[in-house]
Automatic annotation (TrEMBL):
<dbReference type="InterPro" id="IPR029039">
    <property type="entry name" value="Flavoprotein-like_sf"/>
</dbReference>
<dbReference type="Pfam" id="PF03358">
    <property type="entry name" value="FMN_red"/>
</dbReference>
<protein>
    <submittedName>
        <fullName>NAD(P)H-dependent oxidoreductase</fullName>
    </submittedName>
</protein>
<dbReference type="GO" id="GO:0005829">
    <property type="term" value="C:cytosol"/>
</dbReference>
<dbReference type="InterPro" id="IPR005025">
    <property type="entry name" value="FMN_Rdtase-like_dom"/>
</dbReference>
<feature type="domain" description="NADPH-dependent FMN reductase-like">
    <location>
        <begin position="7"/>
        <end position="151"/>
    </location>
</feature>
<dbReference type="GO" id="GO:0010181">
    <property type="term" value="F:FMN binding"/>
</dbReference>
<comment type="similarity">
    <text>Belongs to the azoreductase type 2 family.</text>
</comment>
<dbReference type="GO" id="GO:0016491">
    <property type="term" value="F:oxidoreductase activity"/>
</dbReference>
<dbReference type="InterPro" id="IPR050712">
    <property type="entry name" value="NAD(P)H-dep_reductase"/>
</dbReference>
Amino acid sequence: MTEKNLRIVTILGSLRKESYNKILLQAIADKADQKWDISSADISELPLFNQDIEADGDPEAVTTFKETIKQADGVVIVTPEYNSGIPGVLKNALDWGSRPGNSSVFMNTPVAIAGATPGGAGTALAQMQVRQTLAAMNANVMSHPKVLVGGVQNKIDFDSGRIEDSRTISRLEDFVHTFTSFVEMYQQSSKAGQ
């Protein structure tokens, strides 16, 4: 257990109220309860990215989103996969977060990615695209363990609304433990470089 809980911001790449990925995010939060102070960055009110809008100053929803990310020790992105790729609403949020390019709020920020889908590949293609976007923004993305929950509808107890699959739960425990260490290692290296 860490001396001080890490400030972790979560981004949910789905707007659906009963999203499988919302359930996955809750399962991650449950496993991180003693290690992370969790808050969420709302992406539902962000306008479509447009440099004309940006030129007039960031809208309030964008400013709030960026400030939330700035306060984080690390970010966890949980994404579905739509048509073999990243959901538009999540890509839009990352595009806003990437600006301005030389001082993105994601620059050097530790980030972990997870996702769930009814399909067999467990959001592998969407996560690959998220990683590609984050790499362009110079985020510090954790490479392993990957959380690719396929067939998620078979791993949820719909009465409780929770993931009950023991292998998935074990994977989430590893994910939380590893990301905690990843963020702490980044903090230590940043202090050493000061």
